Amino acid sequence: MRTPISIGIVLALGLLAVWGMWRGWLRRAERSVAWVPELPAVPADGSLGAARSEPLTATYVSSTRSGDYLDRVVAHDLGVRSAAVVQVFDAGVRITRIGASDVFVPAASLRAVGTTSGIAGKFVGRDGIVVLTWFAGPTDGRGLDTGLHLRHSADRPRLLAAATTLIAEPPSPAGRATTKEQS
Question: What is the pLDDT of residues 4-58, one digit of tens each?
């Protein structure tokens, strides 16, 4: 008689834990929608401009609030890890995902490109994840960090170089020359 009671208690605790995780995910989604009310639409192929990279196979790891690699954003499927194909165009970076919504990072929204060893959902060797820092919209004051783990490490420098070309140089202060003086 003792064994069935023990099994029942363990099952009840397990179900309670699963329910708690599910509720936590839903609450995080509600908070995330406030940070990212909507994502930029993925343009049609004809309006992306010239390709700056070939399609690169990757794993879309996750998107987090900028500066906090553990604060996962789950609204609009941004928290769903998935296989992806990443390609850089004149208009921005297109991330075509399998089993989740595609993500488009407009060139004007891209603020930084770098690498890290980990982001919410995956930690790998040194600098194994490419991070795109961008603003999802005009009300996004903090920005997002989107992590991509490329299948082939040789593709990492290609993606970094291509995406870096999209980052606009900050405007020069009024009255200052935009060229460097040579000494």
Answer: 888 888 998 999 889 888 887 777 777 777 777 788 888 888 899 999 999 999 9
Domain count, the chain: 1
C-alpha span between 55 and 155 (Å, rounded): 10
Residue 179 in domain: no
Residue with tokens 């995910």: 25
Helices and strands (DSSP H and E) totals, the chain: 2, 9
Name the burial class of residue 12, with classes exposed (0-12), middle (13-18) and buried (19+) by CB atoms within 10 angstroms of its CB. Answer: exposed
Give the global pTM.
0.77
Q: Which two tokens stand for residue 42?
A: 């993925």
Q: Is 65:144 a contact under the CB 8 Å cutoff?
A: yes
Range of the domain at 57: 45-164
